Amino acid sequence: MNRARIAAIYLLLVAAALAALALSLVSGSVHIDFTGVIQGLRGNDALTQALILDLRLPRALTAFAAGGVLAIAGVLMQVLLRNPLADPFIMGVSGGAAVAALSAMLLGVSGLFVNISATLGAFGTIALVFALARGEGGWTPVRLLLTGIVVAAGASAVVSMLLALGDEAKLRGMLFWLMGDLSFATRPAPLLIVYMAALILCFPFARHLNVLARGELQARVLGAPVDQLRTGIFLSTSALTAACVTAAGPIGFVGLVTPHLARLMLGVDHRFVLPAAALLGGILVTTADLCARVLFAPRQLPVGALTAVIGVPLFLVLLRKKT
Predict the structure, then answer these.
(1) Are residues 8 and 117 in the same domain?
(2) Which of 152, 179, 276, 312 could in theory staple to 304 by disulfide, Cβ–Cβ 3.0 to 4.6 A?
(3) Residue 234 and residue 182 in one domain
(4) Does residue 142 form part of some domain?
(5) What are phi and psi of 88, to 5 degrees?
(6) Does 36 share its domain with 82?
(7) Does 58 map to a domain?
(8) Which residues cross the membrane (predicted)?
């Protein structure tokens, strides 16, 4: 693929990301035009400034970062398992984080303790998948994927039991959180840092990812540190998923669909796929969050439900194109 086309695709993605963020600032139950947004950012209108800086901008940035983080995790997981259906949700990482976070909520804790619980749940789930999937020949992509699917199903069952045992007064909030909820996203900085750090740290390993995607044996022959890469990818996807779950709840289909879109546009070179998927993930979740706020305003929809509504037909179209 020539450089001009790659540059054009990236310019288009950046423009789409900026447009999605801009629309998120002007749209909502109270419409503000772009002039009002600029005046609010300058501090000329205190009410508009509070609406944008305290509510809409943090939520839009959190949505963008969450989508980008999930997209990066999806790319890494699909490379490791060499399976186009692999993502953090299918591998059970998100389910483990959700179980731990809901358990913390039921115990009456909140804030930082819920975030810590979700992180520990994600790492505990991936450790469980590793332990259960290890056979006589070590870990294989098929065994890891099947084990992850079973663990994810188990986590889903535990979540259902926790909801049944939970306080009815908290049930609606817990359900919204489980379907992806950005209504309480007021601190986007931590997730934005995770987003940028993931891109910066993963990019130097893009060539290794290209080799690993062709098969473990070929990667070893070419001198790639397969064992270290495999462990690093699992730990990275666990941390990325936990960071997203704690900030926005479980949001599905982003890590599954966006890597396919990026590869369709830019090929299989992960030097280009990783940044493109990160942008596409951010655009998808930001757009879904915008729709969640405006379609039935002033009522809001769960973001995860809308990403599924967008992601399912999109994935089916991509599947049809490849077959």
Answers:
(1) no
(2) 179
(3) yes
(4) yes
(5) -60, -25
(6) no
(7) no
(8) 60-81, 88-106, 112-132, 144-165, 185-206, 272-295, 301-319
Residues 143 and 9 in one domain: no
Domain boundaries, position 264: 65-322
Cβ atoms of residues 210 and 269 within 8 Å: yes
Q: Where are the alpha helices (DSSP H) in the chain?
A: 3-26, 34-42, 46-50, 57-81, 93-106, 112-133, 141-165, 168-178, 189-202, 206-212, 216-221, 226-248, 254-266, 270-294, 303-322
Phi-psi region of 253 (alpha: psi -120 to 50; beta: other; left: phi over 0): left
| Mean pLDDT computed over 75-91 | 79
Q: How far apart are CA 92 and CA 281, in angstroms?
A: 20
Domain identity same for 24 and 101: no
**Of residues 278 and 222, which shows the higher confidence score?**
278
Cα torsion 275, 124, 129, 318: sign: negative
Instruction: Please name the residue that has the structure tokens 């993605």.
Output: 13
In one letter, which amino acid is 123?
F
For the chain, the maximum distance between any two Cα atoms, rounded to a whole number of angstroms, is 68
Block residue for tokens 């479980």:
250
Residue where one domain finishes, among candidates 53, 79, 94: 53
pLDDT for res 323: 53
- In terms of Cα–Cα distance, which of 91, 117, 85 is closest to 104? 117
CA angle 132, 126, 201 (to 5 degrees): 140
Shared-domain flag, residues 236 and 286: yes
Instruction: Output Rg (C-alpha) for the chain, integer angstroms.
Output: 20
- 8-state DSSP, 204: G
Residues in Cβ contact with 56 at an 8 Å cutoff, skipping those fewer than 6 apart: 24, 25, 28
Total number of domains constituting the chain: 2
* 59 within a domain of the structure (yes/no): no
CA separation for the pair 73, 111 (Å, rounded): 24
